[in-house]
Amino acid sequence: MLEQLLREFYQGSKLAAARIITMVENDTPAGREILRKLYPKGGRAYIVGMTGPAGSGKSTLTNSLVKLMRQQNYRVGVVAVDPTSPFTGGALLGDRVRMGDLALDPGVFIRSMGTRGDLGGLSWAARDALTVLDAFGCDYLIAETVGTGQSQVDVATVADTVIMVTVPGLGDDIQAAKAGIMEIGNIFVVNKADRGDADQVVRFLQATLELGSRDAGWQPPVIKTIAWQGTGVEEVLKAILAHRRFLEQAGLLAGLRQARMKEEVMRRVERMILDRLNNGIQTGAVLSRVYARELDPWTAAEKMLQSMLCSKQE
Amino acid sequence: MLKEEAMQAISVAKEKWEREKLQKTLSKQPERHPDFMTVSGYPVERLYTPADIRYLDYLEDIGFPGEYPFTRGVQPTMYRGRLWTMRQYAGFGTAVESNQRYKYLLSQGQTGLSVAFDLPTQIGYDSDHPMAEGEVGKVGVAISSLADMEVLFDGIPLDKVSTSMTINATAAVLLCMYMAVAEKQGVAWKDLRGTIQNDILKEYAARGTYIFPPGPSMRLVTDIFAFCSRELPEWNTISISGYHMREAGATAAQEIAFTLADGIAYVDAGLKAGLQVDNFAPRLAFFFACHNDFLEEIAKFRAARRLWAKIMKERFGARDPRSMMLRFHTQTAGCTLTAQQPLNNIIRVALQALAAVLGGTQSLHTNSFDEALALPTEEAVRIALRTQQVIAYESGVAETIDPLAGSYYIEAMTNRLEKEAADYIKKIDDLGGSVKAIEQGYLQKEIQDSSYRYQKDIESGRRIVVGVNKFQIQEKSQPKILRVDPAVGEAQIQRLKELRAQRDNRAVQESLAKLRQVAVSEDNLMPVIYQAVKTYATLGEICDVLRDVFGEYRPVEIV
Amino acid sequence: MRKIRVLVAKVGLDGHDRGAKVIARAFRDAGMEVVYTGIRQTPEQVVAAAIQEDVDVVGLSSLSGAHEHLFPRVAKLVKKQMGDKVLIVGGGIIPEEDIPALKEAGITAVFGPGTSLKEIIDFIKANVDVGQAD
Ligand code: B12
Ligand SMILES: Nc1nc2c(ncn2[C@@H]2O[C@H](COP(=O)(O)OP(=O)(O)OP(=O)(O)O)[C@@H](O)[C@H]2O)c(=O)[nH]1
Ligand SMILES: [Mg+2]
């Protein structure tokens, strides 16, 4: 069964890729097993993160960008994340509707996902979906985050190049700078240049960026776009290629990826520990001693960890 | 007694009544709901008194029919002079079949024609285009060239009827075809009376038959304004429509606001194209829905009239009173009609039609009882038409003007709706006008939120739909419905094939080349489209040239 | 239980999207993950999206009389490319007498005007196959 699915996957079946993503998204044992098999095949794809406030035009820009990438014959995968309602667990996955131009392109694979309760702009599942599409043979992967607040910082832990999309008239440029978002962007896009004063935002960003950026030796470009017309998108693609070249030539790419992989592993460790604490062992007894002020939190934590490490995995 | 004092006295008396009379009743038997609302979801008070309209100034805010601000109606005699135009929207299958339906309707006393086109025609595809497969003639008549239009109006004297055409993205082409038929019949253009819908903005917002992006679409609209102000002086060059937005789910206030905001955008575009406001504004017509809330709808029409008059006078400095008159067509609200117990729809339509008449409509379409099943059968349309005739000739409501004026509730609600709509227009202005607001999906989002709220109210039973979520019966099978002959598509394809073989194809190519030249320039497109139509260039060929030059609109899909 | 993924699609030239959008929102509020295609989609576009999104349900909406032509096409492509696991349902203005042929073509259920959202959601929950692919 799994063998068959994998065979189809390697033959380029989109349905197989889609089904595998579903399995990893649902975090089934088979999904984990497949990831084990696929991970070694990955590492080829170059990953672009697309982040920015809700409605700034990330999906529209992705649509235009992918069209250009396709002209150069790259195979492209897109993973786009939208928020899951914390109340109902449902989600309207609205990114795909902006990418109508790509619907029938055999060289493009688009997958929409809900955050399903994960905090941060990219869900766990989205990261795993990228792994799948990497193994699927995509040359470029675009990861679109949910469009909220500060969680975009997340995207830096998966992407080689992070594009920060903003729009004129938000009035919270300062906010953005404060939130540390400025540091993670390798390319800044001021979209909706047909509305409001884009030049002013460009000037502001340039001025702020001159104060320093993530990688020494890379000055993040600020590009004006009108995403739905494709205006300026060519520059965005050029900037991506330039950033990639920069990382490669400066010998930074491998290091960057390793740092990210480490981060990915450590986060999973954290998550697994928490998961096991939450459903595995008896936390209640220790906690009630804290409530009774018999134990201080440090000691309690040590105890929990201790008993977890001793207990066998369920 | 001074007005102030009188109001004070009323308020005091009302409080006393509430305290002494009302409370007793309420304590014995509470009301049916803790609070009441209109169909649009606006709170309704228990009782309205003169105090609710204390600031209303009769002369300034209400005035006289035929005079600014036209609250009571646009003509001095209203229906005593002439009844509203009874105009049933119709069309399906081939031009031959629709032609027969029009002749039938005219023979039954209908006073104007209203043409429904099929979707390929509305979206600029010929009947033989791959996208048209399965759609030809299904929900309107298929018109691919002048040859079809000639058949559609065969034996119908265009100087005697007024014709309304629900056509938007391809309005210029269809109007040119109509003009060409008139020329053939020997009817002068200046004698043509009728309306093209030509309201592209609400296509983006709610109706969906757009082709080109807003820029070039607005140019087509203003080209038509300019051309018609010279050549077809009696023609209504646009029907600025709230109907479709309402049917897509908007509330009454949103309907007024979004329609008038679109109106503002068209006037702005006309001015930007160099036209004088009083040269084209008198030809602007409007189109509204009439929903279930009888009193709210009457107030809506009155509020819309007053608000538009003010906008034209104050915002655009119009001088000609005709520029300030909001003349409108009404269609009863199809979305209120049910597939369950379909005969009940006759009653709904009667009430809605009555509200439209009490609201002072200039023309009216009444929906058929089989609305939620299929295009109407001949019998169903006849009953719908008879509904209007009963109201016109038997009910007595047409004998005096604006009979509900002065009702405390109606006037209070007229004020409230006007204000609510004005607030929305302000918001849209802040977004840069309705074109920008639509591009950002603002109207769409507002409409969808209202629509979903409405649906959830039905779902929860807070809103009762008779026969659907209350008073249900075991449904019998559907009544006999109209079915469009599936052979229509094939027949049209055949006709087109013959046309393409027989016409002078060199003339066609030349006219299309000319069209392209003008399209890239800033000249008026109407004369070249007319020339192309006359060579029997097809609708699709003409639109393909324009698609090529203008590009295609990418919708802002909002869920 | 795993989440139900649904594609709500408008095929053909039909622009009536009020119902489809209401349905999309209702599905979301019922805890499903919903992808909406937008209007004027071809059957091929719908199926391409259904595949990549690996949906469990394809919901088709048509109010302009082209269902006879378009629904079976979508169903055929879905069955061919995705197998029989996917539940296909439809809604809109569909004359009673057309329903048997649509069912024959693989549209499991057709919901007309006035159907309560709950009835539709319950039907989907009862009939969807969300078994794992493994
Ligand atoms: C509202 C409406 C419009 C609005 C649409 C606004 C919008 N953005 O949606 C406007 C005014 C724009 C409009 C225009 C037209 N309309 Co219209 N319209 C209607 C009307 C009155 C109500 C439809 C509606 O929205 N109901 C409310 C929603 C919530 O209900 P619903 O869509 O039926 O959905 C329910 C079920 O059907 C089902 N459902 C629907 N979709 C789906 C999908 C899935 C997956 C599932 C599970 C269930 C499901 O669940 C929903 C909840 O119960 C119907 C008549 C009627 N009463 O049904 C005519 C009707 C559909 N229209 C009709 C026509 C002909 C047109 C036009 C083509 C006319 C023309 N020639 O120009 C135009 C063109 C529109 C276009 N671009 O395609 C005809 C179609 C005839 C036919 N099929 O044989 C109808 C039946 C009226 C008639 N009797 O003539 N229309
Ligand atoms: N004026 C203007 N509007 C644009 C432009 N690009 C996108 N839009 C519109 O902006 C809205 C949001 O675009 P999306 O691409 O969905 O934005 P997003 O950032 O992906 O949104 P989320 O995924 O919801 O956070 C849509 O209505 C687009 O049509 C542009 O360049 N100019
Ligand atoms: Mg997006």
Query: Helicity of chain B, in percent?
Result: 40-55%
Sheet with the most strands of chain B? 5 strands, parallel
Given as residue ranges, the uncertain stretches of chain C (5+ residues, pLDDT < 50) are none
CATH architecture of the domain at 158-452 in chain B: Alpha-Beta Barrel
Q: Evaluate the radius of gyration of chain C.
A: 13 Å
Structural class of chain C: alpha/beta
Nearest-integer average pLDDT of chain C: 95
**Spatial arrangement of strands, main beta sheet of chain B:** 3-12-11-10-9
What does this structure look like?
By secondary structure, chain A is an alpha/beta fold. Chain A has two domains: 42-250, 3-Layer(aba) Sandwich (Rossmann fold), CATH 3.40.50; 262-310, no CATH class. Chain A has twelve helices and eight strands. Chain A has helices at 2-10, 14-25, 29-38, 58-71, 124-135, 173-178, 181-184, 198-210, 233-249, 253-279, 284-291, 297-310; strands spanning 46-51, 76-82, 91-93, 108-114, 140-144, 161-166, 187-190, 222-224. In chain A, strands 4-2-5-1-6-7-8 form a seven-stranded parallel sheet, with helices on both faces. In chain A, helix 4 (58-71) crosses helix 9 (233-249) and helix 11 runs antiparallel to helix 12. The mean pLDDT of chain A is 88. Chain B has 559 residues and is of the alpha/beta class. Chain B has a domain at 158-452: Methylmalonyl-CoA mutase (TIM Barrel). In chain B, the strands form three sheets. Chain B has a five-stranded parallel sheet with strand order 3-12-11-10-9. The model of chain B has no long low-confidence stretch (mean pLDDT 96). With 134 residues, chain C is an alpha/beta fold. In chain C, strands 2-1-3-4-5 form a five-stranded parallel sheet, sandwiched between helices. The two termini of chain C are 15 Å apart. Chain C has five helices and five strands. Chain C has a single domain (5-127), classed as 3-Layer(aba) Sandwich (Rossmann fold). Chain C has helices spanning 18-29, 43-53, 67-82, 99-104, 117-127, and strands at 5-10, 33-36, 57-62, 87-92, 109-111. The longest helix of chain C has 16 residues, at 67-82. The chains are: A alpha/beta (314), B alpha/beta (559), C alpha/beta (134). Chains A and C meet through helix 2, strand 3 and strand 4 of A and helix 1, strand 2 and helix 2 of C. Strand 3 (91-93) of chain A pairs parallel with strand 2 of chain C, so a sheet runs across the interface. Bound molecules: cobalamin, guanosine-5'-triphosphate and magnesium ion (MG). Cobalamin (B12) sits between chains C (8, 14-20, 22-23, 59-61, 63-65, 89, 91-93, 111-115, 120) and B (116-117, 119, 139-140, 166, 206-209, 244, 247-248, 334-335, 337, 371-372, 374-375, 455).
